Amino acid sequence: MANGAEMPAREPRQGVYDAVVVGGGLVGSALAYGLRRELARVAVLDEGDVAYRASRGNFGLVWVQSKGMGLPRYGVWTLTSASLWPALAAELLDKTGIDVRLEQRGGLHVLLSDEEREARLRFMTELLAQPGMSSYEWKLLDRHEVADLVPGVGPEVRGATWTAVDGIANPLKLLRALHTAFARDGVDYLPRRPAQEIRHADGVFEIATPRGLVRANKLVLAAGLGNRALAERVGLAVPVRPQKGQIIALERTRRILQTPLSTLRQMDEGSWLIGDSQEEAGYADGTVGLPILGTLADRAVRTLPALRDVRVVRTWAALRVMSQDGFPIYEQSAACPGAFVATCHSGVTLAAAHALKLAPMIAAGALADDMAPFSTRRFHVQEA
């Protein structure tokens, strides 16, 4: 689990699973949860907490604003997931008793200069002019309108873009709820079993792990950065790379921020998170750097000066899973039918779509036609 406490493990069942998911983070867990709604025998192979878990560094936004520039289908997919989130949160609460603290009151992207304001206006106008991207409301707010939503904003705040569809959830509680649902629904969670080799014969996948073979009719690779090597074993080339992000956690205060910002949020229990750094730093995920942290903190206190008096509790870094162009990859292998790959960097935002839309497609054996833009074929330029 992202907080260091793994859920109780089962021993693998004899015979062949209907589906095995490789990866027990947010992407794999949401898919396994959705697959169990369709199939009787589902297992999750998880490397354990030695893995490069994006889940442990997640900011917890359910965010549509800004998504889809250059691939409008991604914006539509993100909006679909945001609309499904209330159903997923309610179902998890009913099934596990865990409230994942979903709040969808809208979200803000704050602008601290006239230059930022003009650039953001151009970006949002171009983004939503793309095909299929005019389906959600957004506004360019002035300083006074921002102050109505965020009391105490700093004098440098020039405005913000706002959308009604954005929100937040608690990523640790989400991951806990999904794994708790595994125990209730009979999903076999198998930690400390990284997939080492994959064989495909007579329609059955054999996945070799340090603790023996696991067999399945369908295989879903949701191992984050591990997908690059694993996908090769089923005939797919998945160009993913690590992108480092750093987060500052501040002490708990009275809850005052009801509308999240793209770089600043207050958790349901009162603690504050500051984030949104993006570094191409390879696999150096455990190191934090004062220059980056200083930049994050500076923007936060310029936005909300009262944060100067709130103490830092801790900082951490984690690795996002980024494709070559930054968009998700969803594809079934042509060489090994029944093997699917799912890779993205928005594990919280897309959790509802993964559980309630993508998982049923995988269970049925084929991705819908409108998922084609997410295939790796987009990386292959045709020769003239």
UniProtKB/TrEMBL annotation:
<dbReference type="InterPro" id="IPR006076">
    <property type="entry name" value="FAD-dep_OxRdtase"/>
</dbReference>
<protein>
    <submittedName>
        <fullName>FAD-dependent oxidoreductase</fullName>
        <ecNumber>1.-.-.-</ecNumber>
    </submittedName>
</protein>
<dbReference type="Pfam" id="PF01266">
    <property type="entry name" value="DAO"/>
</dbReference>
<feature type="domain" description="FAD dependent oxidoreductase">
    <location>
        <begin position="18"/>
        <end position="359"/>
    </location>
</feature>
<dbReference type="GO" id="GO:0016491">
    <property type="term" value="F:oxidoreductase activity"/>
</dbReference>
<keyword id="KW-0560">Oxidoreductase</keyword>
<dbReference type="InterPro" id="IPR036188">
    <property type="entry name" value="FAD/NAD-bd_sf"/>
</dbReference>
